[in-house]
Amino acid sequence: MNRTIAIVFITASISFSTSSIAGPREDLLAQYAVAAKSSGFSAERGQTLHTRNFNGGKPVTPACTSCHGSDTRAPGSTPIGKSIEAVAVSVTPSRYTDPAKVEKWFRRNCTEVLGRECTPQEKGDWLTFVMGQ
Amino acid sequence: MNIPYRPITLGLIALVFYVLLLERAMAGGGHFYTPVTDPLVKEECGSCHLAFAPSMLPARSWQHMMGNLKTHFGDDASLDADTAAKITRYLVDNAADAGERGDGGKLTRGVAGVPQRITELPKWVREHREVPDWEWRHKDVRTKANCVACHVGAAQGNYDE
Hints:
The complex is a heterodimer of chains A (133) and B (161).
Chain A: H1 2-21, H2 24-36, H3 43-51, H4 65-68, E1 76-77, E2 83-84, H5 99-114, H6 120-131
Antiparallel strand pairs in A: 1-2
Chain B: H1 5-29, H2 39-45, H3 59-66, H4 81-93, H5 122-127, H6 133-137
């Protein structure tokens, strides 16, 4: 019992200290990790999520790449033809620094592509993937 | 006395040119729709498509649209209630039926009901009747909502040819 409390306390203090040092993206990852009860995120799983086709969403947008394009470092395009900034953090460093905006677009885009909201695990994987791009 | 015909002729030609230009510019005034200036509205309504001018639809249309963002022309454009309320206020305050601020409501005059698609307004249809089908299908156009494909000044409110 005491050990459990100690572990929880240590984990909390570690994640708290990391979040105070790291930026908003790392904070988001930490939040997703807690929500997913995750042992970690994988850029590889994130890449698969980003590129694979789903059939639960809208037929015109079977994949993330339908709008974002297959090159993460190149701009994408909305169905109406408006340019979307590249998803790769190396190209668009301002991306994913506003948590509300990140959540808004996950909610909308996952619904359109997967036909459901993304899980915290999926969000964490995807964010890990684009942060490394 | 020697009359300087050359400069006078040149001056007259220049004058005629300016008058014609001015006339065109004035006619262009009829195709001006005050663009969105509010940063929040610009961001939220302009991520997927051009942030359409509020004066292109009457207040009742904007209210209906803002109340149904979950199914926004087939897309999920939902927003939190606070943001949605702020945007609605801006759109209503500058809607086509907001008098002067609504650019005189020139696109919606005589329109009944609660129109949602700007591209289905009778005046819009009339103004675009000469655009052939293949141009709408062009890869740089694709949809009638893509104003900027042809109206390069659309983001600044200018919808001249």
